[in-house]
Amino acid sequence: MNAKIKETILNPIFKGNPITVLVLGICSSLAVTVTLKGALVMALSVIVVTGVSSVILSILRNTIPSRVRIIVQLVVVAMMVILVDQVLKSFEATYAIDKQLSVYIGLIITNCIVMGRIEAFALGNKPWPSFLDGVANGAGYGLILIVVAFFRELLGSGTLFGFDILGRFGYVTNNLVILPPFALIFIGCIVWLQRSIQKDLQEK
Amino acid sequence: MNTNSNVYTVIYTTIVVVVVAAVLALVSQSLKSRQEANEKADTVSQMLTAAGFGTKAEFGKMGNAAVLDKYASVLGEAFTINPSGEKVADLPSGKVFSPKELKALNYIIKDTEKALEAELPVFVFNNGCTVVPIYGAGLWGPVWGYLSFDGAGTVTGAYFDHESETAGLGARIKDDPSFQAEFRGEKPVWDAPEESHIFEIVKGGSPKAADGSEVLEDGRIDAITGATMTSNGLSDAINVWLRAYKAYFSAKAAVSACSIQEESCCCSGCEKSCCATCPCEKCCTSDDCKVSCGPECCSEQCGCCGEDCCKPNEVEE
């Protein structure tokens, strides 16, 4: 059982990463990785949403009528997303970031990772493993977000968490890196790297 | 129990939806006051930025309470006017307009019948700047902002915000200080006829004479590359709102100038006393300056990077 839980936690972080292996949640990862701060808040928001909605739906799993299960999942996920958004808006420290992320917090609802994990895991497992699975998948998503945001903020704005890093060496910021297409290139590179390490992912 | 029967399904979904709605309503109500406080501080900092009391980033670091204190200390008077330029009533102390309220006002201004009854807010700061809001439609959602004017009706500062313009393109109306800086010193064509523009954001900005010495046409700002729709939307928003304020600004052309330019040359890391003595364009602690002329060009005594101290550096290049 312990090995199984370990697998549940570790698999989504690297071997079965939702972005690089399952290729889910690409849209938002292109949009929110301009700054590290934004990516971090987005990552935490997704972790909370996937974790908590997995638990709720796992508890309800035997009572949900199968014909309307997707709608019930959607209602619970939407509730969690709105709660996260409302909480972010309520604190001085996070208000500006919530404003910067604007629609993308709300669009966590449509993030395939959330619904995907609930449908594939939470509806067939007990609450605790479901929670771990949700959190781990959120973390796997967040990890890629933070890696991409690190390079995009560093090369695109010359800063990290808003602190000037490259600017003081006379670095001229690269505007292309700030635009979404470059995030796709970065993610492509990560997928490339991962596939060259994990040979079993390569198609013959 | 048969979880697939119709009765069960209907009852189940009803309960789920009611519970979720109750939770959301409860949370929304309990957090509402905090959210409004944040939104108000944000709006205030936008107005202060337009009026030239600092940059938006500085106000962001100050925290809500400090921003509101600053606002209370520098606000001269806040009142509403009608489209004929006459004062209607004083605004309650500390009253600011949220984007939602501006939206409601925007409908009134654009409605030809109701427009005459519009009550337009005017914020006069004690440095002589008059700040008015603008609101309109960008590409994906609303855009709004604040324009600051001196007594002669010339723009002295601007700050714009948006809900969901494209990051890196349309979002530059908010994120790019150099776009907002372009508005400084631009004079709207207050007597423009109905079919032409009081203010316009177009490709190329104000046309200049061939030798660059003379501005041929006022009230023109260079649009943002790759964000034509956002630029047009903002342009329309400014036009519609300034037309509503036209009578007010035309009437008060003789009032003393707004003393912003000197203030805005200094930033937080810079001694206040240097503002009077040093004709600095930018402070050397500000990030733009480091990029544009390098840290070594700054004069150490005043902490400012003026025309003079930048020159040696340019010669070396």
Describe this structure in words.
Chain A contains ten helices and two strands, in the order ααααααααββαα. In chain A, strand 1 (159-160) and strand 2 (163-164) form a beta hairpin. In chain A, strands 1-2 form a two-stranded antiparallel sheet. By secondary structure, chain A is mainly alpha-helical. By secondary structure, chain B is of the alpha+beta class. Helices cover 42% and strands 17% of the residues of chain B. Chain B contains eleven helices and ten strands. Chain B has helices at residues 6-50, 56-62, 64-74, 99-110, 172-175, 177-181, 228-251, 260-264, 274-277, 287-293, 307-316; strands at residues 75-81, 87-90, 120-125, 130-137, 142-149, 155-162, 200-202, 220-222, 280-283, 304-306. In chain B, the strands form three sheets. A six-stranded antiparallel sheet of chain B has the order 2-1-3-4-5-6, with helices on both faces. In chain B, strands 7-8 form a two-stranded parallel sheet. In chain B, a hairpin with a 4-residue loop joins strand 4 (130-137) and strand 5 (142-149). The model of chain B is unreliable at 260-317 (pLDDT under 50). Chain A binds chain B through residues 31, 34, 62-68, 71-72, 75-76, 78-79, 82-83, 86-87, 89-92, 95-96, 99, 102-103, 164, 167-168, 170, 172, 175, 178-180, and chain B through 3-4, 8-9, 12-13, 16-17, 20, 23-24, 27-28, 31, 34-35, 38-39, 41-42, 60, 63-64, 163-164, 167-169, 287, 290-291, 294-295.
